[in-house]
Known about the structure:
The structure is a single chain. The chain is α/β, with parallel strands linked by helices. It has 3 domains: 24-273, Rossmann fold, CATH 3.40.50; 277-423, Isoleucyl-tRNA Synthetase, Domain 1, CATH 1.10.730; 437-487, no CATH class. The chain contains 16 helices and 13 strands. The chain has helices at residues 40-58, 85-93, 97-114, 130-142, 157-161, 174-180, 223-233, 247-262, 293-298, 310-318, 330-352, 364-375, 380-399, 406-423, 437-455, 459-471; strands spanning 24-29, 62-67, 146-149, 152-155, 196-201, 217-219, 237-243, 267-273, 276-278, 281-282, 326-328, 474-479, 482-487. It has a 4-stranded parallel sheet with strand order 2-1-7-8, sandwiched between helices. A 4-stranded antiparallel sheet has the order 3-4-5-6, with helices on one face. The protein has a 3-stranded mixed sheet with strand order 10-9-11. A hairpin with a 2-residue loop joins β3 (146-149) and β4. The longest helix is centred in the C-terminal third of the chain and has 23 residues, at 330-352. Residues 1-20 and 431-436 have low confidence and may be disordered.
Amino acid sequence: MSTLQLYNTLTRKKEVFEPIHPPHVGLYVCGPTVYGDPHLGHARPSITFDLLFRYLQYLGYKVRYVRNITDVGHLENDADAGEDKIAKKARLEALEPMEVAQRYANRYHDAMRSLNVLPPSIEPHASGHIIEQIALVEDIMAHGFAYEVNGSVYFDVEAYSKANSYGKLSGRVLEDLMANTRTLDGQSDKRNPADFALWKKAAPEHIMRWPSPWGDGFPGWHLECSAMSTKYLGETFDIHGGGMDLIFPHHECEIAQSVAASGHDAVKRWMHNNMITINGQKMGKSLGNFITLEELFAGTHQLLAQAYSPMTIRFFILQAHYRSTLDFSNEALQAAEKGLQRVTSAQKTLQQLKPSEKSSVDVTRFIQDCRKGLDDDLNTALVLAAIAEWVKTVNSVKDGSEQLSAADLKLLQADFKVVVNDILGLQAEPVAGHGNDLTGGLMNLILQLRSQAKTSKDFATSDAIRNQLQAMGVVVKDTKNGAEWSIE
């Protein structure tokens, strides 16, 4: 059986990783910090690694997919100072911190279901693994790579670097980090500004706190992924994924923690998706271009020209290679909407085609063309380009310029389902912005009235119906099998 070919994610060189031997694959992905509504930035890693999860299973692997929930230890400046983001949200909304975490975890899960993102095999919460994180800190300290000061424990980056390579994932040089890292207020306990917290002493007003050998406190942000990934996937596992913004410091610190505790790397392969920008700018609350998934689905954000369905968002994200920057714009989403409609219409047409005695096309090429893109480091842009060419073939069969035998028609129908629905995760849905089954019934009624007008030679009424529908974005096409409609 073929194995998934992954590029070296740290360079642009076309280097293939070692084969992942069946039947087991361990996959760990950094999940959301649950202190706010899920946004467009959450959609890209979720869909990227959902695609990987689906494709590995298609290839015959048994995948244990672990995606964590960060509900403690993520401070405001993503370092070792500031207020816990969830605790701050709880204070502002007069709620318990875990109440905030649960609320936004529920919203995240709702959004993922809408995007047809499969649930992971295991979804551990950082707050549920405090014991494991304390044990990991103790292991690191026992090996001489951490120190305790006033109830906080810090990783000793300089000591670690004497025997190991800190910065090998990101390409950072320790000397440069030490020279360019300023000492922030509240971090004077550190021996070196580049050191990072494994365990933080809780201030009296800090709500989220647990007892430890060093006093009441809470784990550092980087610690949770090292503890939970190895708990569920073993000391060495196959793939660790997340956004490129996590390469440094989060994933770099994970590597250091794991090596310091066990003496070896935990992760065989790293995969990172690139960022989403909006009209060429990085998405962010401070710029006013931060769009939640709920706003996208409802079309309520000021930057949106219309509502966009979850499948349109999924198609939009799949149009670009996961390691390339993806720029949001209304024009790009509208193009994705049309592209999705062409694919779903072709799949519907496939189910309605009548077979011929023989075939004029080699349908086995469809799955081969799509596999070529997927094996090329999950290059979904190539996959969608291949599907677009086969959409033309389907339409040619419909128009009578190509033919498919009964066996080939059945094979192409099955392969379309495998690629479009099972691997890419694109579901059939109502045409974006036009409702549900009621829409289809109303359109059939309208086209029946138009057909009756044509039969009665009332061409003025027939043309008026067609023109008014076109003005609303509905295109009516007369075929030998009757009238068809689509959104353009």
